[in-house]
Amino acid sequence: MTNRIHELFQRKKEKVLSVYFTAGFPQLQDTLPILQGLEEAGVDIVELGFPFSDPLADGPVIQESSQKAIANGMNLKFLFEQLTELRRFVNIPVIMMGYLNPVLQYGEDAFIEKCAEIGIDGVIIPDMPLDYYQSMWKEKCRVHNLANILLITPQTSENRIREIDENTTGFIYMVSSNGITGSNKNLNMQSDYFKRIGSMKLRNPILAGFGIHDQHSFENASNFSNGAIIGSAFIRHLVTSGISKTSINQFVQNIRP
Fold first, then answer.
1. Which of 238, 185, 221, 212 lies closest to 21 in space, CA to CA?
2. Count of C-beta atoms within a 10 Å radius of residue 183
3. Any idea which residues carry the catalytic annotation?
4. Measured on CA atoms in the order 133, 137, 139, 145, is the torsion positive or negative?
5. C or N: which end of the chain has fewer Cβ atoms within 10 Å?
6. What distance lies between CA 26 and its chain's CA centroid?
7. At a CB cut-off of 8 Å and minimum separation 6, what does 155 contact?
8. Residue range 32-90, pLDDT digits in tens
9. Is the C-alpha dihedral spanning 94, 228, 67, 102 positive or negative?
10. What is the CB neighbour count within 10 angstroms for residue 227?
């Protein structure tokens, strides 16, 4: 069975737009309506964050959304219940993104099996060590057709990047800086790094993330990759403009007219 992420990159090679938001934010029951709104607005991939109390790589905007979601009552068990009929309403690839601790509490095998059952296409667990993935997750993900997306940064060595490229099964998440999410607003400074990655001719598609917030930064990142990921800017938009389909469509059209 072909994974939706793989199908996407087979037919679309450039300006792929992935949008991240935190499940259960702004309100507990907003998850599915936001997913539907993003699909209707033309987003290619959605990264659905499951909240954690100590999200080390996230900036203040996503941290605050995570704290609010937890206060609303969101956790993995409830999120999976919300997503039971996901594929009745949403056809685009959906990725679960979050930290390893909540997954361990839920149960790793149960997490992978539930993702496959409801139609999740991939996972991003930023704090999962590569050797742990190789020994504990890789075969299970293969069996359940669940893509694993790994991250690289400007400090990742070439040997490590090639190892990550061998183990990634969806796309490579190219972190634009060594900061936290939402922190890097001048992506022009990253062009040497982007060009270096491009020259390596990696086998996986590449999406750039961290600091992508408007049309200019999206276009700039897409010049050196297959597209880009937007998170903090979209969460700020949800706070200021609401979750209506009109509001979400306006946000997406401002990024990729």
1. 238
2. 16
3. 47, 58
4. negative
5. N
6. 18
7. 178
8. 999 999 999 999 999 999 998 876 656 788 889 999 999 999 999 999 999 999 999 99
9. positive
10. 26
